[in-house]
Amino acid sequence: MGRPPKPIDPTESLTSFYGWKIRTLRDERGWTQSELGKKLALSDDAVSKLELGKSAPDNRTGELLDETFGTGTYFTELAPLVRKERIPGPARSLAQSEATASTIRVYEPDLITGLFQTEAYIRAKVETGPYSDDVDEIVAQRLRRQEILERMNPPRLLLVTDEAALRRAIGGPEAFKAQLARLEEAMRRRNITIQVVPAATAAYAGLAGAFTIMSFTEGPDVAFVDGPNSTGQFIDRPDTVAGLMETYDLIRSAALPAVQTARLVKEIRESL
Fold it and tell me: What is this structure's pTM?
């Protein structure tokens, strides 16, 4: 006799309810996870993760669940909501704030910042972390965030990064060359300024970690301070935001001018 299935609390979240519903309908029909997996073109492990709320369904899986269980469009309609819920709350809130900001100041020392990441870069990064099961939705969400740069009146965007981020070839040399080319394309836009702190710089004001400051046409500035595993937090206390603004200015003073930064990015890309 196999081990009893892990309990699911359907009241915990929409994701848990979705998985509980799948298990309930499967049990009613007397199917194993393997048998259901064959109908959905999923592995046993993938079915288990769906039921336990450890992964989110794509649109096709939602459609196949409805076809298999005869539930109309129930699973199909809920699938996008489940995927959205699986995106960490701070990431959702950051995207919402970016969408209404008139000016965005980003300091990101370790990675190419999200608003400029290519799909290959996002995927390679996410697949190494705790949200790897949700890589498709995180990629889609990150690319949706970037749509603010294509609107009629895009925000003014200032980015300061560290040279280490420009040399960390996430995704492999070819994918990273495309990532650096994406950065070069962004630098040619009038509303975007990118600067890099060179590797030769020893101590400077940015060693404490990444943060973003957003300014709005109406209302006070707010900041988002990054953290591991979606532990980042928003800050709206005026004195704290003002302190971060001062730190940002100090970081920029340690960075290369935009023209020299463009030369460095090109040099690194061509060396790959």
Answer: 0.71
d(CA 72, CA 165): 48
User: What per-residue string of b and e applies to 19-54 under the rule 16 or more CB within 10 Å gives b?
Assistant: bbbbbebbeeeebebeebbeebebeeebbbbbbbbe
| Helix extents (H) in 87-134 | 89-100, 119-126
* 74's tokens: 């129930």
The pair of structure tokens assigned to 218 is 């109406």
Alpha carbon distances (Å) from 89 to 84, 152, 184: 9, 28, 31
Token pair of 130, please? 């705790």
Name 225's bridge partners: 211, 233
Q: Tens digit of pLDDT for each residue in 3-62?
A: 677 888 888 888 899 999 999 999 999 999 999 999 999 999 889 989 998 777 888 999
Measure the CA–CA gap between 196 and 257, rounded to whole angstroms. 8
How far is the C-alpha of 246 from the C-alpha of 269, rounded, in Å? 32
CA–CA gap between residue 21 and residue 3 (Å, rounded):
20
